[in-house]
Write a structure and sequence with these properties.
Layout: H1 3-35, H2 38-63, H3 79-109, H4 117-148, H5 153-159, H6 163-192, H7 196-225, H8 231-242, E1 247-259, E2 262-271, H9 277-294, E3 298-305, H10 311-321
Helix pairs in contact: 1-2, 1-4, 1-6, 2-3, 2-6, 2-7, 3-7, 4-5, 4-6, 6-7
Length: 335
């Protein structure tokens, strides 16, 4: 999938989730105020958090597409990670904290009985349909992305360099679970006459949102710091470079994700001694072009000739990867 098409797909997923959460949030808020249900008010706060999250993710998708300039020669790809990190914090602040507060308040103070509890079930049913629609779209994008990278869905969710579909998937799945918790709290409140169950449901929703916010923030942090490409891509690039006639061995290979589907490659190679400096300059220029054609995600390439006998460099590589690259055929994934 081209970068432009993938950008549009991520934007569509986020916009659909934004529309669903905005509509659902208004319904939950109205039902919560009408019936006094703490669980519904917690779910309304959850939806508000999701709306703010999707606005940040939409900002991330748009701003990360800006072309490179003089001040940012590697582009603005990491803007997507910065806004995704803020979005994860938004889930915690606007959703989880309010839900915990509402749960404690409901348990300690109780709530007035309402004859309109049926409104809660109607709203939760509509919310399930709308959130489910958004979740289906997120699942489709994740499955498509996993198929293109020949990975399982769980592995792709854990290793993807695009935080937008992962965040939408996590939030929509959490929303569906949250709806189930809210429905259980409302039903137990109605059956027992005790508002404690409503409060317990709110606390459970708050705890769920806290876990999701932490997981999203943790996964985005690694991308923002500068994660390397996945081991399969790293090994494939290494093998491709070693197939070039001018390269005797790859001594060191470093990669970094500079954005979604953007990989920076820095290679230190031991070149064949028979080539003159001018020939190597032409060879490195050719390798730069062909490597980016062979690997669509490779965005920038830097190649440095070094002797493979350099002990200090080999020790650094050994410390980083657990093996020396030169003359070592084993797969990186084995480590």
């Amino acid at each position: 999938m081209g970068r432009g098409r993938e950008h549009d797909q991520s934007a569509f997923t986020v916009v659909l989730a934004l529309a669903a959460n905005a509509g659902v949030g208004l319904l939950k808020l109205g039902a919560g105020l009408l019936t006094g249900s703490g669980a519904l008010l917690s779910e309304a706060a959850h939806s508000v958090g999701d709306v703010s999250t999707q606005l940040m993710l939409l900002t991330a998708v748009r701003r990360s597409a800006k072309p490179a300039d003089r001040r940012h020669p590697f582009g603005y790809g990491k803007e997507r990670y910065f806004w995704a990190l803020l979005a994860a914090c938004g889930v915690l602040v606007s959703g989880a904290i309010f839900s915990v507060y509402e749960g404690i308040r409901t348990i300690t103070e109780g709530s007035e009985e309402s004859s309109l509890l049926w409104v809660n079930y109607l709203v939760l049913g509509l919310a399930l349909v709308m959130e489910g629609t958004s979740l289906v779209q997120a699942v489709r994008q994740v499955r498509r992305d996993a198929a293109e990278h020949d990975e399982s869905v769980p592995r792709r969710l854990a290793g993807t360099d695009d935080p937008a579909p992962r965040a939408v998937f996590a939030e929509d799945l959490t929303a569906v679970i949250g709806i189930g918790l809210a429905a259980a709290g409302v039903a137990l409140h109605q059956l027992t006459g005790s508002a404690v169950w409503d409060g317990v449901a709110s606390l459970a929703i708050g705890g769920l949102l806290t876990v999701v916010a932490f997981l999203l923030a943790q996964s985005t942090k690694t991308l923002l710091i500068g994660r390397q490409a996945d081991s399969r891509t790293l090994r494939s690039i290494e093998l491709w470079l070693e197939e070039q006639p001018e390269i005797d061995d790859v001594v060191d290979l470093m990669t970094m994700l500079t954005g979604t589907d953007q990989v920076l490659v820095c290679a230190r190679v031991d070149v064949v001694d028979d080539y003159r400096a001018g020939q190597l300059e032409e060879a490195f220029a050719r390798i730069d072009v062909e490597l980016r054609k062979e690997f669509a995600d490779v965005h920038e390439v830097f190649i440095q000739p070094v002797p493979r006998t350099n002990r200090e460099l080999r020790e650094r590589v050994l410390h980083r990867y657990g093996r020396e690259m030169a003359d070592q055929p084993e797969d990186l994934t084995a480590r």
